Amino acid sequence: MSEAQLAAKQQTLNHSQQLLSRANQGQELANTKCAGLEQRLKQVTAELGCLRQNAESARHSAEQRLRQREREHQQELQELAEQQSGYQMLEQESREAQSTASHQIQQLQREHLELQATVDKVTAQKQLVDRELQELEEKVDWAVGELAAYQKREADLQREKQLTLEKNSTCQGQSTQRLLQLEAQLTRMEQDLTWSQTSREEMRGRQCFSST
């Protein structure tokens, strides 16, 4: 083998060694890069695990909040239904109370009219009684005056009767007739006196009744 060939082979060998060295350097760089990538992959995997765990925890928490919100919503709906039922009951009670109050007002109005009619009737009766009482008082006053006059006439007749009895026997027939007339007149006066006393007692009784 000639020197030229050896030199060419040496040059080729050197070139190959350079390429191998470069390849080794590239391999080392690739290995380093792969190690870095593997480390990064582990970190990313760990981060993904944390994120997955956090996401699962967040999902679980969100589901719990959602279920809690649904329970609260159901409770609010139930409370709203109860309030609506209460409002309906209050409206029904209000309508019943208004109807009862209306009936009571109408009843009171009827009773007021009846009471007013009774008051008017009693007032008219009182006015009538007052007029009758006034008339009776006038009659009593008249009866008292008549009684005094009758008593005076009775005394006069008694005196006249006594004088007549003392007259002469020759006038006995006339005196007897006159005496009978006087006795009849006296009887009528006594009857009138009795009527006057009875009227006065009735008047007093009606006055007592009216005052009560």
UniProtKB/TrEMBL annotation:
The keyword Coiled coil is annotated on this UniProt entry: yes
Region (Disordered): 193-212
Domain of life: Eukaryota
Membrane-spanning intervals of the chain: none
Protein name (database record): Uncharacterized protein
GO cellular component: chromosome, centromeric region; nucleus; spindle pole
Keyword hit for Lyase: no
Species lineage: Eukaryota, Metazoa, Chordata, Craniata, Vertebrata
Any Gene Ontology biological process: regulation of G2/M transition of mitotic cell cycle
Cross-referenced PANTHER family: CENTROMERE PROTEIN F, CMF/LEK/CENP CELL DIVISION-RELATED
Segments forming a coiled coil: 27-167
InterPro entries: Cenp-F
A molecular function (GO) term: microtubule binding
Keywords: Coiled coil
